[in-house]
Amino acid sequence: MFWLSKKHGIHTLPAWIISIAATIGMIDAFFLLLEFIEVLLHPGEPTPCTVSSLVSCTLTVQGPYGHYFPGIPNPMWGMLWYAGCVAYGVTRLLGTEYSRKARTFVGTILVLGLLFSYRLYLASVLELGGVCPFCLISTTASTLIALAFVVDDARYAGPLLGKRVCTRINGRFTAQSLRKINSRLAKRFAFVCGM
């Protein structure tokens, strides 16, 4: 299968997940930006994504969570973040290996974006009392990106899991001994620690 092929000695499935989820997230952020512009042009009117009083983007876009920084709507930050994720995923697909410092930086930016996405979604649900479907898509996409990055990072013994952890695990347990316990666990262990 092409998405599991090895290119330059790496498995590309996490990079595919990052690239696809980030592309979906960027399109989603673009639609949220259009909703934000719609609210600016027609204040007080419901936006096109308003289904009911509960399922609505209007509450999120018109409320205090429409922009954290004065003059810059949150969807613009989302588009920038997702564009960076697309760039990272595509470069990983092309076989680029990143240094430990670069991967730590990317991981930090991913965590900040994920926390920002969860903060906005939880604010729309808990504080504003409505569900924004575009925010839910964005939160799901950012979660997939973060999980794929962790798998990708762990697979290559990067900063989040660390080489010492994989080396210690490889030293204590081998794929052979794990196969005796559970073949599914052994396959996952072998994939994550690069055996």
Would you give an account of this structure?
The structure is a single chain. The protein is mainly alpha-helical and 195 residues long. The protein has eight helices and two strands; from the N terminus they run ββαααααααα. The chain has a two-stranded antiparallel ribbon. The protein is elongated.
CATH level 4 superfamily of the largest domain: VKOR domain
Widest sheet, order of strands:
1-2
Query: What's the Cα radius of gyration?
Result: 20 Å
- What's the number of structural domains? 2
Strands, total number: 2
What would you say the CATH architecture of the largest domain is?
Up-down Bundle
The helix-strand sequence is: EEHHHHHHHH
> How can the largest sheet be summarized?
2 strands, antiparallel
Distance between the termini: 20 Å
CATH topology of the largest domain: de novo design (two linked rop proteins)
How much strand? Answer: under 5%
Measured as a percent range, the helix fraction is 55-70%
Shape: elongated
In summary, what is this structure?
The chain is mainly α and 195 residues long.
Topology:
Blueprint: E1 6-7, E2 10-11, H1 13-41, H2 58-62, H3 74-93, H4 100-127, H5 133-155, H6 163-172, H7 175-181, H8 183-192
Antiparallel strand pairs: 1-2
Helix pairs in contact: 1-3, 1-5, 3-4, 4-5, 7-8
